[in-house]
Amino acid sequence: xxxxxxxxxxxxxxxxxxxxxxxxxxxxxxxxxxxxxxxxxxxxxxxxxxxxxxxxxxxxxxxxxxxxxxxxxxxxxxxxxxxxxxxxxxxxxxxxxxxxxxxxxxxxxxxxxxxxxxxxxxxxxxxxxxxxxxxxxxxxxxxxxxxxxxxxxxxxxxxxxxxxxxxxxxxxxxxxxxxxxxxxxxxxxxxxxxxxxxxxxxxxxxxxxxxx
Length: 212
Hints:
Elements: H1 3-13, H2 18-28, H3 33-53, H4 59-82, E1 89-95, H5 103-114, E2 117-121, H6 128-137, E3 142-146, H7 153-166, E4 172-176, H8 182-188, E5 192-194, H9 197-209
Parallel strand pairs: 1-2, 1-3, 3-4, 4-5
Helix pairs in contact: 1-2, 1-3, 1-4, 2-4, 3-4, 3-9, 4-5, 5-9, 6-7
């Protein structure tokens, strides 16, 4: 097994100790930082996403794998910066105003990072104006809105309306959460719907990278 394959496997296994050591070893042996990121860390997280989507992994395994990936990334970041390597796209994510649930949102954020996005996590109880403000302050490729309560779905719709009215060009918008459906996503004008964290991240990748 190559070093890059070992890095990917360490992420899959959620090995927070071995992952950064393997990254350091790969760099010491002359591997490019971007190669270590794409063919090691991100490849491992992509497999974690697949296993989660297929029901082979559950939330604890994903969170442990995410910690391993972050440990490896912390070693890699200075090398990526020196090499001028930046995230391929930017995603803004948040749970809409009135809703304080964050487990699903946090999983999606983790999966997006594992897919190569720079993720700006606005947290919970985020008003439409905050999503708009961030999208006006910098280039954002995709906005992910989460709602776990039927009572806050209206605020999701309001967030979509304000983003479309106030941000030009409007970023791609995806939505998700327990009460949300594809039909509701279509009704409020979202670009896509993710039924869970893994499919949401895959959808974001296809919508953003697929059009480049």
